[in-house]
User: Fold Glyoxylate reductase/hydroxypyruvate reductase from Falco tinnunculus.
Amino acid sequence: MLRSKAFSLLKPIPLMSGQSNLAYKLTHPAIASHGLHCHGRIANYRQRCKTCPCNAGRRTISAAQAKVMAETELPGILILDIGGTHGVLENLAALLKKHFHLITMKEFLEHKKEMSKKIQSVFVFEGRPTIDRELLESLPNLKVIGNSGVGVDHLDVKMISEFGVKVTNTPHAVADSTADIGMALMLASARRLVEGCQVAVSPDTKCFAVDWLGVEVTRATLGIIGMGSIGYKVAQRARAFDMRILYHNRHQRSQEEEEAVGAHYCEKMEDLLQQADFVMLIVNLTPETHKLIGKKELGLMKPTATLINISRGAVIDQDALVEALSNKVIRAAALDVTYPEPLPRDHPLLKLNNIIITPHIGTATVQAIRMMAEEAIANMLAVLNGQPIPSEVCPK
Ligand SMILES: O=C(O)C(=O)CO
Assistant:
């Protein structure tokens, strides 16, 4: 297929906030309110507009280039929030460019007339951009929204499907890196790693090991809530620590799968909560799992237990968690996800010393980012070519 030289020279342009009503809606509200570029979760914590090293966003294209793009044969793909630094932007763009004409939100808004019919896919890389009726109505030939990541709680899949548009996700690409972050949080919390680091970098602090006693992960009981592919990968890793593994899930795994990792099914979540030394949340955020862990559930946990969340912040009632941690109802918590993200500076969770919080870095590895893009591309191409879709998210 032919590709225009002019287009191949184009650099993808990250979404700019506040450009128009539509652009505003496509910017995560939390990010807009912080005045940050919508560059992805990690960048949200670190990059302010002024210091952002990514200057690509300032680039624009001519009407002639836009016309060439609109006439070329590769399907157009609208890029929502492809961001980051350190070459991530360029690497992902290069992968996408093999199959699609990249059209950034800025380009789309500037040349809507030429662009809108060309766009057949929307690629959601990071952040939680709003895909609403207004956007869908402006894309008459849209066939697929390819989400990078497994969680699609930011997308109204039912509404999107009414437009005949498919939604896909990347459960395979995220599984190892997200399971690793679950293990990392469990170990770090158990052995008070963050506090230890703080002591080590303050040479004046007197440090006796007895003041920093942690608890052992080895041979402890791990309760996994949500035994999908990430949950199962966690169980595989936990087996190497001789952990006793309990799990609660909508469906019981096969006997073979259970035996392979030595996991025992708890039909009632309460049974798991009462027995586990570490409770790890790995469920999708749905109306059923919203505030799944609240005051009652925290009260069932052992006072020596640790709660780890690598799913979505809203799975925990954060007010109840603040209370439970302050009153030592449970030993500690380790969260890779919160609501909102990031937490406001004065949030009570940030004032506690029995908590570890990371900025939603479950998939923040060089390998996972690339695999997510590859899996998303495979999904989107399958939809466009009328082939079986590897990972489709069906409306409930
Ligand atoms: O895949 C996702 O949705 C994640 O948030 C992984 O951390």
